[in-house]
Amino acid sequence: MILYMPTKVYQEKNCVENHSRELAALGTRALIVTGKHSSRINGSLDDVKNALDREKIPYTVFDDVEENPSVDTVKKAASLGLSAGADFVIGIGGGSPMDAAKAVALLIANPERDTDFLYQKMRAAGGQEAHQAVPVAEVPTTAGTGSEVTPYAILTRNVLPDIVLTTAPGADARHDFPHLGKKTKQSISHHIFPALALVDISYLQTASRNGCIYTAVDTLAHLIESHLNANTTDYSRFYSETGLRTWAKVKDRLLHYEIGEEERRILMNACTLGGMSIAHTGTSLPHGLSYPVTCEMGLPHGKAVGIFLPGFLRGYGDREEAMRVLSLLEFGSEQSFSEYIRALLGEVSIPDELWERDVNELLENPRKLKNYPFQLDHDRLWAMR
Asked: Which of 181, 271, 316, 378 is the most buried (most CB within 10 A)?
């Protein structure tokens, strides 16, 4: 078994201010990567800027990260960072800015590479990654992705059919045939752990009701998918079991949306534990099934992944472990869990054509199935709907 968690995490009020020296020690000039609005509204961006000013560290702000960030956005941010001479990156926000910050850090450290490099895994002798990123700090403002403690960076990219990729030499398929591509969400091939995570639950206060619920369900998915996973170990289950028990403490208040400071603290604890869990195991089928639903139906990620959780538990090959998860969450049956998720997220109808395509694409991609420890076929996946 292996336990590896290199990110230093502080969770406390005024976290950024209290640890400004450690933040400043990551480099000599920062690139701040964030979205347009939320980090300004909740005060996190001002806190980071004030901390850097206090430590006399110059910085540049890139505040154009969209939900489900694209490879193009990451390229723009990296170009800005390179022109400014940034040697470390600070991601502020939910999963989108934090994931983008990791990919940006990789491109800044490898300026001779284009964005295709993000999805090319290259290793040196001894199995170590041949290309490293500049240091990354993360300041989460949602309690969902756990990106502040994971090595993953999920980006939206255009995937082109094979026939397009065999165009004449010198042709740029992405520009010459844009109508033939389709969007998908995919993690970059490189693992980039943040060096520092500064977690302050005060930033959660401005979250909307739906934002809070959907990110909490993303946390729940991380915990369940990590626990029921081909890569799970006794060590990883220290995180997932504690996280599931923690999430259970707030599930009823989340349903009625009675969320105060204590509930935000619990949700953030569960979120970070979920991140630590999937850092060791990766996610599984609900995340794989959710990406086309997010891209094509426009559902928020947490809602898209959450609708697959009841079917995932219902169809899981080890019934004892599936019931163990329900017990940790304090649900008496699969039906009660399914009813809870439906009440929390509402009804979602996936068109048959999209569902059929989603199932077939998953079955055709061994990489997306490798974390599920049992044999899968079309009928078993279809029944998870």
From this structure: 271
pTM over 0.85: yes
Give pLDDT tens digits for 117-174.
Answer: 999 876 554 444 546 999 999 999 999 999 999 999 999 987 654 433 334 444 444 4
- In Å, what is the CA distance from 146 to each residue of 47, 85, 143, 191? 21, 29, 7, 15
* Maximum C-alpha span of the chain: 61
The burial class, CB within 10 Å (0-12 / 13-18 / 19+), for 363 is middle
Task: Please check whether residue 278 is in contact with residue 222, taking contact to mean a CB–CB distance below 8 angstroms.
Answer: yes
Please list, residue by residue across 329-354, b when 16 or more beta carbons sit within 10 angstroms of its beta carbon and e when fewer do: bebeebeebbebbeebbeeeebeeee
Task: Judge contact between 110 and 238, C-beta under 8 A.
Answer: no
Please, which residues have CB within 8 angstroms of residue 193's CB and are 6 or more apart in sequence? 6, 7, 136, 149, 150, 151, 279
| Residue found under tokens 């347009």 | 36
Contact 188, 2 (CB under 8 A): no
- Asked if 246 contacts 270 with a C-beta cutoff of 8 angstroms, the reply is yes
Residue 70: beta bridge partners? Answer: 156
Name beta bridge partners: 61: 32
Is 298's pLDDT higher than 50?
yes
